[in-house]
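Progress against Task 2.4 (sequence-to-structure conversion) is shown through the following example record, which the project officer requested during the mid-term review.
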Amino acid sequence: MKEQTKKNSKSLGFLFVFLVLVNLGSHFYFKRFDLTQDKRYTLSESTIQLIQGIKEPVFIDVFLEGAFPPEFERLKTETKQILEEFRSYNSNLIFQFTDPLEDDSKAEQYAKELSNLGFVPTNINSTKKGKKELIQIFPWAIVNQEQKSVRVSLLVNNFGNSPSDNINKSVQLLEFAFADALTKITTGKQKKIAILKGNGEMADKYQADFLFQLKEYYQLGEFNFDSLQANPQKILENLKRFDATIITKPTEAFSDNEKYILDQYVMHGGKTLWLMDKVVIDIDSLQNEQNVALAFPRELQLDDLFFKYGVRINSHLVQDLLSTPITAQGPQGDVPIDWLYSPIVKSLDNHPITKNVNLVKLEFANTIDTLKNNIKKTVLLQSSPQSKALGSPLEVNLYQFMENLDESSFNKGNHILGVLLEGKFTSGFKNRVKPFSFTGMDEGKNNKMIVIADGDIINYNYVNKKPLDNGIDQWTQQVYGNKEFLLNAVNYLLDDKGLINIRNKEITLAVLDKDKVSKDYTLIQLITVGLPILILLIFGFIFRFIRKKKYAR
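Structure tokens generated for the chain above:
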């Protein structure tokens, strides 16, 4: 017996020394094993490099503390785990979870203050002890470093998705959401983007929100074609200093000089985002006694360039049954009016630019034809199957969809509204007389551009020229995905694929099949509750039997 005790003591001593050595070694060497099938806890290389490059402390406050329904408990747990993974690579990341509504006496005041700061709450139905109640949750975080702060939305609320699907999407985007915030707060701006002016482009206030977002990643500069008109070569040289150019809803025709400058900018590798309207019509033009206006083609003199690049923007207006109402003033206040000229486009999920993007709202969108050439074309936006396109000139009436709508005629849909072009573009001035002397290129460098047949895609924070409250459409209760789509588009054009690749990470959450659980409730209870207890009893019996036999005298 003494010999056995001595042997056991020796084994325990070795085990103790081994555990001490393992703990000491863990301070110098870190390794975490991700055994999940979808590798949800394995950070991308881009994220790891970003985290390891942080030199100063970053503080992250997450407003997801408290007792939540199961779906939000899952979001809370996944958020905590991803932040723990972040911190394992850099101790400068410090996070905490707080409940902003913990103090009942100040909950209403705090909720109002958070809403005013842009932290939009989510109201959800919860059942506690058989009683249903509506509770308010702030699925947000804020990332702070010195004087900089960035809000982080943790909840995806995509139109048409079930709550579990939206939670799944939210978990997929957690790494992207925090990596994006860290990029904004720690990374210096490098690449430069020109915002083109001089041809009646959209007023700044209607694209301000997007430009402010873009400014967190890149250097922006206004570039006016009206300057140096006597020296187009100098204008081109100045434009070539920018990595990309955004052309937003021009309303005045481009001269040959301006077209050649843009063409040679593309030939030399400059990236372009074209947000174009090919038809003259606006909501404001319907504000008359008859509530009627004529929509007619807009001539920008760019058709020959687009034709060479591989697309044609048509002077057609898209009507789509999947659309958002507009607001009209009724006797008792605002009322919604069916408005099929405001299509809301569901993401095709076919490209990093469109992956996990919510509905994109358009206004008086035109159609695009793709032409056969050597350029690769990827459709990014298209109307629903229940849509149609009408040519202009066309009379538009504010109340035309309120009655006698023949839905059966909306059967020629899937019109292309936005397309990505990639390849070596051919100059629109090849084999033509050049408008000014310049040693240009007829065949361009490998390049890419995006063409969207709606300039108002960037005007997502206004409806009827009135700003939305926190970006939420009062009739659909949606925050549209225009901003995310456009940011992805610019990131992709400028080869900033790190954040896009993180955004496209696929995670599948294992969710119980409620119908199957309801059907086989007793069997599932026996498997999930009874079987583990039975295994423990069997193990305990076997252990007791072996121990009794071993030490029997």
